[in-house]
Amino acid sequence: KERLHDLLRPLAGDLSEVVEEAQAGATAVAVGLKHTYTGDTIVGHEDLVARGLGNATMEGVHVPPPVFALSITPVEATDDELEEALSILVRDDPSLVVGVDPDTEEPILRGMGELHLEVAIHRLQHDLGIEVATGRAHVAYRETIIQSEGEATMTSLNFDKTIGGKRLAAGLCGTLLSLDTESEDDDGSERWMMQTPEVVILPQVADELTADQLEALRDATEAALNQGQSFPRIGCMLTISEVMQEGPDVTTPGALRAAAAAFVAKAANQYQTSVLEPIMKVEVNLISEDHVGAVLSDLSSNRRAQIRSVSQDTSGRPRLVCEAPLVMLLGYASAVRSITKGHGSFSMEYSHHAIDTADSQ
Prior knowledge:
Radius of gyration: 26 Å
CATH class of the largest domain: Alpha Beta
Pfam family, one: EFG_C
Order of helices and strands: EEEHEHEEHEEEEEHHEHEHEEHE
Distance between the termini: 46 Å
Strand content: 25-35%
GO molecular function: GTP binding; GTPase activity
Structural class: alpha+beta
GO biological process, one term: ribosome disassembly
Shape: globular
Helix content: 10-25%
Number of strands: 16
GO cellular component, one term: mitochondrion
InterPro entries: EFG_II, EFG_III/V, EFG_V, EFG_V-like, Ribsml_uS5_D2-typ_fold_subgr
CATH architecture of the largest domain: 2-Layer Sandwich
């Protein structure tokens, strides 16, 4: 629940006035909200209770997965101050994601593109007063396994080691499957979405494990399945159909964790691995026809773009829609301004992942 302190109607400049209500379509500022994020819908709880909908929830705004990452380091601020400022950014913009680089332990800010992160860093430094140094930008590559039809086979592994004088043993059987791709492009190439790998432990297997064993097996399998050879893995499902035990003192949660990691590696190594790159849907808007040819030539020749349409907006101005690898769009804001002599703009959003045929990572 939220308690609203004031409702303000913004006026010119920094002025505002307190109002009792806001009609549909009006712009208002709600003061005092502590748990509300961008995209949330606020409703009167008493109204819902009266209608028998006291526990109702509404679907939030769809937030596409981040495809661009930037490491950040505070110049003078403490880690706690940086963490608090980043939490404010994420609260205002749910498409931003904060994480930690597993190798350097530096904070990582992920977003929808180069310009998106530039705006976020500007807000961090100028609005929130946290000066940061930024590292090299990273594109969100992924990888997946490639299977021919009917190629999936059962994998089995027996783990048996003595560690610190104590014997640990566990056996696992299961099948790793490549999930169906969403669709195919006009040229026949497949599309992958940012689909987290799935782990399925059959009910009869889960029933034979203690709660601690089941948790250890699931957590370790999910962690190993998510971590590919070079990039996070997507688009696959692992079904565990059998667990062989030798008693609680031997088949411990630790034994199952170790067995799960080795089992996933063995299952994945049976198949070809492909690197996937993020593909963006790009819309370029021009003022006149003068620069259409130059923009199309640059997109096709220099940015590996697939042109989807060339049309006009409601004002009769040219609009170009294409799909291009994100890595080829780095610096495109400056390029499109240069090509069109400042008379063009563009926007882009995540479309899908596709096999990286250029080894650009």
